[in-house]
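Run log, item B.
One chain of 232 residues. Sequence copied directly from the ordering sheet:
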Amino acid sequence: MQNFDLPRRLTAEALGTALLVATVVGSGIMAESLTRDVALALLGNTLPTGAILVVLITILGPISGAHFNPAVTLIFALKRELTPRDALLYIVVQIAGGIVGTMMAHAMFALPLLDASLKMRTGGAQWLAESVAVFGLVATILAGVRFERSSVPWLVGLYITAAYWFTSSTSFANPAVAIARSMTNTFSGIRPTDLPGFIAAELCGAVAALMLMIWLLRAAGEGVPMAKEAQL
């Protein structure tokens, strides 16, 4: 990652988040238009999301680290593998890229470019689900980087595919994606008023995962918990 300057890294983060959100929102719109079976529609939303994550992390990871997620960026900032300035810029472009991704998906299906969601997603169970989803995602990334770096794209894609189905929230697991999904009144949407609870839960899950994994990944007699690696 050190071989790429900040503008290129920021562009990779914006592009990756935009394509991720376009996939999430677009596949949700397509699935909803093809079937009235909610389970089948969710499957149609899940598989493209997991698949695009494998692709995006593989091709953009060497440039920016392929975070595409403010919660992940926060973790690498807390590990001091990103400067506060770079982390803040990552988060800004991730959010902007996510909004562009929603607009792209809407444009492809001839919908208004932005349309505030009316889909209610709130309550303790959903907040717990988001905490668990991000906890698992961060744990997967940190352990993957530690033990099997080349497999991280597949690990993340498969984890998110699974988390769509074992969490009651369908695993947003990403504050930038949540913000972008609040701007689509389609299958994958979330009401803007429900965002604070989701984002707070996601950040709590991320920090909890970091705290556990710092201890868990430290080998006996090892002074430094993890090698300094900011890219996936």
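Observations after the first pass:
- The mean pLDDT is 94.
- Residues 118 and 191 are 5 Å apart (CA to CA).
Flagged for discussion on Thursday.
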